[in-house]
Design brief:
15 helices; 0% strand
């Protein structure tokens, strides 16, 4: 069951983010204008914001919640793949949002309980799995869409979450209880940084396919650009080692200096734009591993609120990116301002 917790992020994020490189194609499939899929990106994350703090208070075993959440994510993705209209696809994305709210809150809080002697390192490994899922979902979606179309790609990438959810539900009592949740308003800087982390991740990642398609890139090539997410795997996996050697705050701030450098490179044409995206993703996931680890060590209440704040940033990214479709440099400037704020806060002690 411990392995299922670590793998939950792979299955969750491959299903949840597979649609990102396909957004323009999905809109064309349903005859919708550019940016019309924005609510389908932002509203599921809003459900994560609203529901995540409540998850630790639910009376069911952790295994049942984790398995049920993965099952809903997979089911929503599979139904949405064959939705006849964009509004119905958005409703299926809401189902995914309900399921997704159950997964990261529990996983972040369970990692230090399951691995008390290696909490920093295993938090980084869990985050590396999240990166792997999100990266593979985006990359494979673009490649699969070339041969199977948008619907086939989204359906296939929903299956891992559905199958892992069924597997976990077969033994829901295999995970330890987390105890009564505690909520700490003094962790506000940690919550603010959580919002910034996912906003920076999704805001620019959602804008990138539009910019690349303008330059003549095909769907498969756009999907391959999202291999940049895989560079978050070493960034996440090494975060615990670096934090033990140099300190969590110093490692966090170094990561955000690299984020700022990557954002600057996004203003340049390929291949420097791609290099900037790679650097941004690697550094963001280093910082994210440290922040989620700090939240997990404070218990389920703080981890639930952190997850809510994290996805509040993602919600805002999904709702706001359509307004920047023709203002990419301004979007990069917004990202730089938020990165400087996160650098100054560094709430990972």
């Amino acid at each position: 069951m411990r392995l299922a917790v670590l793998l939950s992020g792979v299955a969750l994020y491959s299903a949840l983010y597979a649609v990102v490189p396909l957004l323009p194609l999905l809109e064309r499939l349903h005859g919708a204008p550019p940016g019309a899929a924005g609510p389908g990106m932002g509203l599921p994350l809003l459900l994560l914001v609203l529901l995540s703090p409540l998850v630790p208070r639910l009376p069911w075993p952790g295994g049942a919640l984790l398995g049920g959440g993965l099952l809903l994510v997979g089911l929503g993705g599979a139904l949405g793949a064959f939705s006849p209209s964009l509004p119905l696809w958005t409703l299926c994305r809401l189902l995914q949002g309900v399921g997704a709210a159950l997964v990261p809150t529990l996983a972040i809080a369970l990692v230090p309980v399951l691995y008390p002697q290696r909490a920093l390192e295993m938090a980084g490994l869990y985050m590396a799995g999240n990166v792997l899922g999100g990266g593979l979902g985006r990359v494979l979606a673009g490649l699969l869409a070339e041969g199977l179309g948008v619907r086939g790609a989204l359906f296939l990438l929903s299956l891992p979450a559905l199958l892992l959810g069924l597997l976990v539900l077969r033994a829901p009592a295999g995970l330890p209880p987390l105890g009564r949740p505690r909520y700490d308003p003094r962790a506000f800087p940690l919550y603010a940084v959580g919002s910034i982390l996912l906003f920076l991740n999704l805001f620019l990642a959602n804008l990138l396919p539009y910019r690349l398609l303008e330059w003549g890139y095909g769907p498969g090539e756009v999907g391959l650009v999202y291999l940049a997410y895989l560079f978050g795997i070493p960034g996440s996996a090494l975060s615990g080692v670096l934090a033990r050697r140099f300190g969590a705050v110093a490692t966090f701030r170094l990561a955000f200096l690299l984020v700022l450098l990557g954002l600057g490179l996004l203003l340049l044409p390929p291949p420097l734009l791609v290099l900037g995206f790679v650097l941004q993703m690697a550094a963001l996931f280093t910082a994210q591993s440290l922040a989620s680890g700090a939240a997990g060590r404070r218990g389920a209440g703080v981890s639930g609120t952190y997850v809510a704040s994290f996805y509040l940033g993602g919600t805002l990214a999904g709702l706001l990116y359509p307004f920047f479709l023709h203002s990419f440099p301004l979007a990069v400037g917004v990202g730089m301002g938020l990165a400087v704020l996160a650098f100054l806060l560094a709430p990972v002690r």
